[in-house]
Amino acid sequence: xxxxxAPAQREPELAGQTVVVIGxxxxxxxxxxxxxRAEGAEVILAGRDPGRLSRAAKEVGAQRTAAxxxxxxxxxRRFFQALPAPVxxxxxxxxxxxxxxxxxxxxxxxxxxxxxxxxxxxxxxxxGAGKMRPGGTLLFMGGTGGRRIGHxxxxxxxxxxxxxxxxxxxxxxxxxxxxxxIAAGFVDTPLSASLLGGQLEERRNELRATxxxxxxxxxVDVAALAVHIMTNTALTxxxxxxxxxxxxx
Length: 249
Known about the structure:
By secondary structure, the chain is of the alpha/beta class. The chain is built from eight helices and seven strands, in the order βαβαβαβαβαβαααβ.
């Protein structure tokens, strides 16, 4: 009786590539860096908190780190200027949506809420694309929660709606560098825990009971999608929802 053939060894999908994660010290960014490393990539982490960034870098074996505020345009430009070229993929997880009643916001707050994510993405594209190999991807984070108009959403719905066409237009301008957007619902991250506090477990239980997938979306889920978008070079200009069906409940 002949022995069963040994399973074929799969080559790491990001071997020889470099992945930059801005907002990579925790949550989705850190998990994406971890998965990219598991697929053979070198990773570069950027974030605001030097201590947390250092711990994350040791955890995943990052090639290098940079501590700065991603919304500081000058600091962002210096970061990309100092990067050794070329890099293959840049993911931005920094920032989050702004919620609150529209009429309680002044004009400056509205302007910032509408433009923050777009301006950050544009500055990353402006300063980062020239360092990237053709076929690499700029990967941004959006959301699905703001698509539903409702009390408490405020400006978030308008800000959410701006990101998909922005990513698509940017993909045309930057080709052959690819541009894609991940739209997540609730993800069980440290940020979610800090925002919800004592209501976190209640929210988890609600989602387990109502989501079609029967569980809460985690950073591991989003990281798996992010790495797939990095490795599949046919993907550009698109928005990929990952919310466990939350927008349909």
